[in-house]
Amino acid sequence: MKAHVYVMLKRTVLDPQGQTIHGALKKMRYQGVEDVRQGKYFQITLDSALDSAAATAEVERIAREVLTNPVIEEFTYRIES
Amino acid sequence: MKAHVYVMLKRTVLDPQGQTIHGALKKMRYQGVEDVRQGKYFQITLDSALDSAAATAEVERIAREVLTNPVIEEFTYRIES
What pLDDT does B65 receive? Predict the structure, then answer.
């Protein structure tokens, strides 16, 4: 079983990395890009003995307590069986 | 229109960040985690005047040419209208 966790800076937090990439894309003449924001992506391989509810609970706990700084970041996750 | 680009180290490339997180999770007694790999995640907001084919082509080009180091990384993307 695999979990995908996406961590992004909150909308209200400035994202200098994303802005730098956006600026570079504009200079390189890529068309139609209005905004870029960068985040982190984690692939977590879970023990297949875990049932779906336990896996969801564990992944949510890991994302909340370890992978995300709640002051400036927010996360979403998806579990793939 | 929004594009989501996920960049990961290739399977064959060692991921020390992911290993460090995996080690930390084990020490912190999280259950059932077999592997962790870390990647990058980009949210690209596109000009809504682009049609779907143009957007796909542009995002694929940006991902291939700018966001990914093809020697050690691979990407996937998803476009949301």
Answer: 96
Contact A46, B31 (CB under 8 A): no
Length of chain B: 81
Beta-carbon-side half-sphere exposure of residue B43 (alpha carbons within 13 Å): 16
Q: Which residues in chain A are contacts of B40 at CB distance < 8 A? A: 38-41
Q: Cβ contact (<8 Å) for A54 and B42?
A: no
pLDDT above 70 as % of chain A: 100
∠ Cα A52 A54 A56 (to 5°): 70
Its pTM stands at 0.91
Q: Which residues of B touch A57 (CB under 8 A)?
A: none
DSSP letter assigned to residue B65: I
Sign of CA dihedral A59, A62, A64, A69: negative
Fold annotation for A2-80: Mth169; Chain: A , (3.30.1280)
Contact A47 B33 (CB under 8 A): yes
